[in-house]
Amino acid sequence: MAGEIQIKGTRNGLVILLPTTGSFDELKQSLCQKMESAKGFFQGARFTLHQEKAPLPSHQRKELEQLLTGYGLVPAPDITLPRQPAPPVKKVQSGGRTHIIWQGLRSGQEIRHDLGHLVVMGNVHSGALVEAGGHVIIMGSCAGTVRAGIHGNRRAKVVSLAFRGAVVSIAGIHALTGEAVSVPGPGPHRAVLRDEKIVFEPFPTQKGNVPL
């Protein structure tokens, strides 16, 4: 079954977002139903078709454009989706040794603390960047890029409740979890630098003060 078709308005016309699931016949039927339910509403509107990851073959695109033309729409391949503004880049100015970020980081967001350690109270998603002169502690899963010891501190560590395809760097030495480097077993782990190589080990969970 085809997924939902979305229609987004832009300054130059409509972008019709097509799902990547379902057969072409299902997609065509779904588009017909969409047009019938709004018959006459889009009369004369300029439009373009957009499908993420798997662009339509030219003959299928032409068939859908002809279908939409029958409902009074006008093909306009020059229309594009407006770019989403990138989230702001953050730089910690605090002179304290440890700075806490009370949220997770989404793709495009960055946080840097030159002077000490960083604690992120949430997930670090793919496309996010965390940099610290000292340790980085992530109270969630990590799929982004994390650089600890950015000024050459080889004793810096990266701790996360889960590493999921993260890029980890300590004092300029890199490791990519999930490919060449695997994280053994579930649960929190810490990345440490040993003999010019980053290794991942389970984080101690016994009661009491646990040193990094």
Précis, in short:
This protein has helices spanning 24-37, 58-69; strands at residues 6-10, 13-18, 46-51, 74-75, 89-91, 98-101, 110-113, 117-120, 129-132, 136-142, 145-148, 158-163, 167-170, 173-176, 189-194, 197-202. With 212 residues, the protein is mostly beta strands.
Note the main attributes of this structure.
single chain, 212 residues, mainly beta, Pectate Lyase C-like, 6-stranded mixed beta sheet, 2 helices, 35% strand, elongated
Spatial gap, N to C terminus: 50 Å
Strand content: 35-45%
Largest sheet: 6 strands, mixed
Average pLDDT works out at 82
Q: How do the strands line up in the largest sheet?
A: 5-7-9-11-13-14
Describe this structure in words.
The protein is mainly β and 212 residues long. The protein folds into two domains: 6-75, no CATH class; 89-202, Pectate Lyase C-like. The protein has two helices and 16 strands. Helix 1 (24-37) runs parallel beside helix 2. The termini are far apart.
SSE layout and pairing:
Layout lengths: L5 E5 L2 E6 L5 H14 L8 E6 L6 H12 L4 E2 L13 E3 L6 E4 L8 E4 L3 E4 L8 E4 L3 E7 L2 E4 L9 E6 L3 E4 L2 E4 L12 E6 L2 E6 L10
